[in-house]
Amino acid sequence: MPTSFPDVFSLRGETALITGGGTGIGLAMARSMVSAGARVVLVGRREAELAAAVKELGAGASLVVHDVTKLEAAPALIARITRETGPITILVNNAGIHLKKPAVETTTEEFQKVLNTHIVGAHALTAAVAPGMMERKHGSILFTGSMASLFGIPLVIAYTAAKAAMVGMVKGYATEFSPHGVRVNCLAPGWIETEMSRKAMEGDPARKAKILGRTSMAKFGTPADIGWAAVYLSSPAARFVTGAVLPVDGGVSVGF
Predict the structure, then answer these.
(1) Domains (range + CATH), the chain
(2) b (16+ CB within 10 A) / e for 17-41
């Protein structure tokens, strides 16, 4: 294992599958991982966005169109990527959808749809990729959590349930997988400037002011802040880190 800078943060020789990798935080993680030497495979439903991302990222990137809620297709997806690109050594469960709605108006169907994308779909991919990682005694699995993993946020009950569930999943997977050389961790982004976050705050200036008011650094983060944190957690520098939730939030989770 590398023991000196910068090699200890290198992802050379790694292959990362990133769901929801065509835009926002997923694309930022792909950019950072490619810069760190990894090959990345972007997975998502919208081919045009994935293709634009791959064009930007260059030869170190490829794409596969796939809907993570098609649970039965997860093993075939992993087999295809392994056959075409090589064994997956990093899995980033980043795909997600947002629903802004009062809790009492959130239907069970809407609630289930959010859980299926964030939780059930992520489990299907994790269960498909983890056996190979454990057999090779090498792998890193990341989940993209949220401030909603850590405290209550109004008007996003289904999203909050999904992101809070991730914390338990990460700890559960970590206890099972880590003895076999596979680390499992979670990033908890604060409020990051993305299309999804902008939509969440549209027409709600009071909410935006409240967020900035309780963020110690008094600003929004950038997608790159999450990208480099993902590189760290996937790199040899984090070889003794598993079952962790890393807030990248400008201090929003630590006080007012």
Answers:
(1) 7-193+222-247 (3.40.50.720)
(2) bbbbbbbbbbbbbbbbbbebbbbbb
Q: How far apart are CA 122 and CA 37, in angstroms?
A: 25
CB atoms within 10 A of CB 123: 17
Residue 150 above 90 pLDDT?
yes
Is the bond into 236 cis (omega within 30 degrees of 0)? Answer: no
User: Which region holds residue 60: left if phi is over 0, alpha if psi is between -120 and 50, else beta?
Assistant: alpha
Q: Element (H or E) spanning 124, and its range? A: helix 121-136
- 159 has catalytic annotation: yes
Which pair of structure tokens corresponds to residue 189? 């982004």
The 10 Å Cβ neighbour count of residue 85 is 15
Whole-number Å distance between alpha carbons of 36 and 215: 29
- Report d(CA 148, CA 5) in Å as an integer: 34
CB 177 within 8 A of CB 130: yes
Q: Could you tell me the two tokens for 232? A: 């760290």
**Residues 70, 120: Cα–Cα separation, whole Å:** 10
Q: How far is CA 164 from the centre of its chain?
A: 14
Q: Which of 159, 177, 220, 228 is an active site residue?
A: 159
Q: What are the beta bridge partners of residue 62? A: 41
Q: What is the tens place of the pLDDT at every residue in 67-76?
A: 999 999 999 9
- Enter the pTM of the model: 0.94
CA–CA distance, 50 with 41 (Å, rounded to integer) = 10
